[in-house]
């Protein structure tokens, strides 16, 4: 039942965003009052992206822990957090973390699932990196099976650093760690 309502929700969102390409698009630093929109995007994106990779109960446990409003507001206030919006509505977000001096990590990067492969991800990554003057190398972890994201990062110039198994709340995830040493702009993803 829950799956069915999600599908109907996606169809409604597709209709809502039909004219999105005629609207203005902006990337900016996230504000505390963006937390509810970020939470909604994270939930929809996780359930869409990881439906065949991570069991739903494991997804929900993670989302409840790291994407509740209080935790999100703390993250927005403490780390470089960018959103992409169209006509004032947040459609995606990127959370960056500065690691040791001269290194950074893209710890979260999600778009409204119905808006994937339309150029918004490229714009969010490019402008987000510029907005916060993030140092390279930049690292990102991608779960095996998330082929769309893996190909996206390769097109952006990321290269594979290592593969490992990650214990994700009792569930083993095959994970690929990539890094970017030079910024490649362009490509409409």
Report the CATH superfamily. Answer: Gcn5-related N-acetyltransferase (GNAT)
Cα gyration radius (Å): 16 Å
Number of strands: 7
Q: What is the residue-mean pLDDT, rounded to a whole number?
A: 88
Shape: globular
Helix content: 25-40%
The CATH class label is: Alpha Beta
Read across the widest sheet, the strand sequence of neighbours is: 1-2-3-4-5-7-6
User: Which range does the strand content fall in?
Assistant: 25-35%
Structural class: alpha+beta
Distance between the termini: 32 Å
CATH topology: Aminopeptidase
Walkthrough of the structure:
InterPro entries: Acyl_CoA_acyltransferase, GNAT_dom. Keywords: Transferase. It comes from Listeria fleischmannii 1991. Residues 25-183 form the N-acetyltransferase domain. GO terms for molecular function: acyltransferase activity, transferring groups other than amino-acyl groups. The chain is of the alpha+beta class and 189 residues long. It has one domain: Aminopeptidase (3-Layer(aba) Sandwich). Helix content is 39%, strand content 29%. The chain is built from six helices and seven strands, in the order αβαααβββαβαββ. The protein has a seven-stranded mixed sheet with strand order 1-2-3-4-5-7-6, sandwiched between helices. A hairpin with a 5-residue loop joins β3 (89-98) and β4. α2 runs antiparallel to α3 (56-66). The longest helix is centred in the first third of the chain and has 15 residues, at 2-16. Residues 1-7 have low confidence and may be disordered.
């Amino acid at each position: 039942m829950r799956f069915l309502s999600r599908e109907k929700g996606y169809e409604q969102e597709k209709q809502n965003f039909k004219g999105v390409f005629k609207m203005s698009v902006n990337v900016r630093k996230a504000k505390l009052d963006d937390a509810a929109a970020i939470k909604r995007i994270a939930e929809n994106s996780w359930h869409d992206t990881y439906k065949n990779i991570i069991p739903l109960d494991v997804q929900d446990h993670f989302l409840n822990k790291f994407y509740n409003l209080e935790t999100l507001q703390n993250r927005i206030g403490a780390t470089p957090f960018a959103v992409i919006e169209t006509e004032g509505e947040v459609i995606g977000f990127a959370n960056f973390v500065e690691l040791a001096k001269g290194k950074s990590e893209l710890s979260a990067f999600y778009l409204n699932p119905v808006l994937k492969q339309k150029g918004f991800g490229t714009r969010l990554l490019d402008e987000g990196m510029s907005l916060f003057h993030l140092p390279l190398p930049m690292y990102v972890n991608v779960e095996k099976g998330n082929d769309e994201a893996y190909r996206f990062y390769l097109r952006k110039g990321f290269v594979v650093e290592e593969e490992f198994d990650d214990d994700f709340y009792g569930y083993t995830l095959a994970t690929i760690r990539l890094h970017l040493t030079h910024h490649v702009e362009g490509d409409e993803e």
